[in-house]
């Protein structure tokens, strides 16, 4: 009995020893492997006389708002870095860890050059680190970034923007680190990616070297820092095309309708002052409000945008309809007919725009002439007797008390197009009212044709690629 118990105890102890040995080896390879090494995380892994190669891959799974007003866009990405550290070569499987394991190892300290704000996503800050048996280290990080994008808005809203993500090492120049894109799919975009205002047209990857050379830097040239030397840089470039449906329906179509509404004034009577003024001013104020709405969402730039050209020209058409009304109404109120050599546009406009001088009748001179004629009548007719002379004096005084402007027509005659100071209308004579109506009829054709020509030139311009 005792012998059997001792055999069982030996078996259990041997089993536990074997199991414990395996657990200790696994624990050493997984958790305590880094601690068991004389590892200095501040020392760059050696690659002989060559710089260490760091390979980068980016996965784009979301692109947020592209804000033209602040020249920035947001994106959620998965960054993956790969490099080889010969100090981590071992026999065994793969070691996986998170942020705590990363803090014990050397890393290339890559940063985003055009970053405005960024953070590691996830409640536990999603960082995954994988160490392979040959010393290859793979670091993956989920990040949300707000990135600067210098936009060219000359053709807004028919523009396309090129927005980059620029990666660079913070403290290691080209003699120490060389950044490379992964050969297999360096940039991958989520196939279900959908944007609100833009459409992701294409992506490119480029590699370059950024130099920081300051001659006045009082440091020896053998000292490298972020302010001196050449640094390897990787860039992924996104080409975004703006969707113009919103701007067509909310800005261009209403502005076209407002311009057309301003032309209704040409079908109203030239003397309809309240109606034509109300129509012109209300159209102008509505259009100004519409143009201010689209300008409030854009940055203040030094050049002229395509939308500004559109709104300036449309404002000119609406303002032109107001000026046309003021012009024809002024002509309508004239009293003298216009003598023309020929009844055509050239002579009508020339006679209309040329100022006409009018002889001013002085009342005092008319009275003097009346009194002179009165005295002459008295002398010539003295033989007729005192009774006739007294009647002539009364008639002359009555003529003096009348309106000193005998040839001035009444208000009703002006409104009816009558003119008592000139002869009746002949073959080459037009009344001011006829001229005003003639200008309105021509405006009904000139304004729409000019606007159609402008639209042909404008829409051709915005679709031409520079």
Describe this structure in words.
This protein has helices at about 1-30, 35, 100, 245-260, 275-295, 305-330, 345-355, 365-380, 385-400, 410-415, 430-460; strands spanning about 50-65, 70-85, 95, 110, 115-120, 125-130, 135-150, 160-170, 175-180, 185-190, 200-210, 230-240, 340, 430. Mean pLDDT is about 75; it is low at about 1-30, about 355-360, about 365-385 and about 385-425. With about 475 residues, the chain is α+β, with helices and mostly antiparallel strands.
How would you summarize the topology of this molecule?
Elements: H1 2-30, H2 33-36, E1 52-67, E2 72-84, E3 95-97, H3 99-102, E4 110-112, E5 115-120, E6 127-131, E7 136-148, E8 160-169, E9 177-181, E10 187-189, E11 198-212, E12 229-242, H4 245-262, H5 273-295, H6 306-332, E13 338-339, H7 345-353, H8 363-380, H9 386-400, H10 411-415, E14 429-430, H11 432-462
Parallel strand pairs: 1-9, 1-10
Antiparallel strand pairs: 1-2, 2-7, 3-6, 4-8, 5-7, 6-7, 8-12, 11-12, 13-14
Helix pairs in contact: 4-5, 4-6, 5-6, 6-11, 8-9
